[in-house]
Structure formats: C-alpha cells, structure tokens
Amino acid sequence: MTEIKTSTDYKCYPLGDAAIVIEFGSIIDPTINFRIRSVCNWLDEYTFEGFVEYVPAYTTITIYYQPFIVGYDELLEMVIEMLAEESSDAEQERVLIEIPVLYGGKYGVDLHSVAKHNRLTIEEVVAIHSGAEYLVYMIGFAPGFPYMGGLDERIAAPRKTSPSAKILSGSVGIAGMQTGIYPMETPGGWQIIGRTPLKLFDVERDNPSLLKAGNLVRFKAISEEQYFYMEGDDYGY
Asked: Facing residues of 134 across strands?
C-alpha cells in the first residue's frame, strides 16, 4: 500500500504512479513559498536518478519521476530527509525584476473598472499597483504566465463574469488578490489594467520564461513613447 506521509507542517502523497506531491498548507503565503523554493533548490542541486521534473505551485510542489528507476517509497524517504534539513533564509536569493507598464487607455481597458470598483481614481490605482513588490508564486496557465501575490487589497478586483476572447501579449491583469502578465495572446478573464512591452516568453532565449517562481517583481509606469521604444525587447534579462 502506498504510504501517505503526514507531518505537523507538510503532507506527502502520490499523484498517479509517477509523481509525489509535497503539500505545505492551504493558504497563499510567502513562508510556504519559501519552503517550496527550498525544495526546488535542493532538486536543482541534488537531482536523483529517475528524476523527470518538478512543478511548484502556491502551496505544493509535485516531483515527477520514472517509477521503473526509483520507487515511491524510496523517493518519499529522500523527501523526508531533505525536509529535515531545509536551507536557511540566507541561502535563498530573491531576484528583483522591474517590469515597465503602460497603464490605461487601449493598453489597460479595465483600469477604469478596477478604479470604480474600489472607489479610487485611475491615478491612485496605478500608484498603488506600481508601488509594491510582488512575489511570483508559480508559472502556469500559459507558458511564462506568472501568478503573483502581494496585491494591495485596495485595488483587488474580481475576475470578469464573461472572459475576453482575446487578451493581448504583455497585458497586465488583476484577479482577486493576484496580479499577473499574459505572455502571449490568449483568452482570459482577468481585469486588464496595462501592458508591458517586454517579452515574457521567448523560445529563442536560453531561459524562455522571463520570470520564474521565487522572483520578486516591481512594476514601473511608463509613457507610450517609452513603450514603443522598448517594445519586443527583453530589457537586458
């Protein structure tokens, strides 16, 4: 019988016959993200035989493996030992990346709605959104799409009741207490408040995704002239 390991602060359980899930809780929290990043760092440094990949999320990290090379019970023991020796805060480096954004107008068609929903001016929404640092908890939905926490509740807004058929690449949105950036043209239901000229995802780069889980992001308001000047660039990343 496959073992489900439960501790006071984490739980391990199988996902199918070729993956193990480590769950650290049920809330979006920087402390939990720190623990997930610690596991990621360990896997980057000590990749075991039979390892395929890992997928970090808000409260979990899933490790995929080749079951004919390494068994679940063997991997579970490795995970338990690793969690007993998690890295200290000093061993994790947070990379801060500045993302330029042209807010409002045709670039941020829902900025007015977000301002109205929160009884703020457009200028106040922009100031609040660009005045904070955001933690990238995970990449998902589309290649390179960052789910970021740390949004000020004063500018929180619900998803659209009817998703838009086309959200342009680079669009910066808000959904609940999250903010994110669409890396490519796709349908979507987030409230769009602006657009960045940067390429969030480019297969021609050594690292296709501009952002990765664990990064810190700060948005910088720019003019339309600056937008056109920077459009399509990777801004040195």
From this structure: 217
> Which of 4-8, 34-38, 232-236 is predicted most confidently?
34-38
What's the CA gap between 54 and 133, in Å, rounded?
26
User: Over the Cα atoms of the chain, what is R_g?
Assistant: 20
Region of 229 please: left (phi>0), alpha (psi -120 to 50) or beta: alpha
Task: Give the list of residues 6+ apart from residue 7 with CB closer than 8 angstroms, or none.
Answer: 83
Single-letter amino acid, residue 64: Y
Instruction: For each of the domains in the chain, give its residue range(s) and CATH number, in order of start.
Output: 5-91 (3.30.1360.40), 96-230 (2.40.100.10)
Prediction pTM value: 0.83
* Spatial distance between the Cα atoms of 49 and 52, rounded to a whole number of angstroms: 9
How do strand 19-23 and strand 11-14 relate by DSSP bridges?
antiparallel
Using CA atoms, how far apart are residues 49 and 4, in angstroms rounded to an integer? 22
pLDDT in tens, 51-65: 999 999 999 999 999
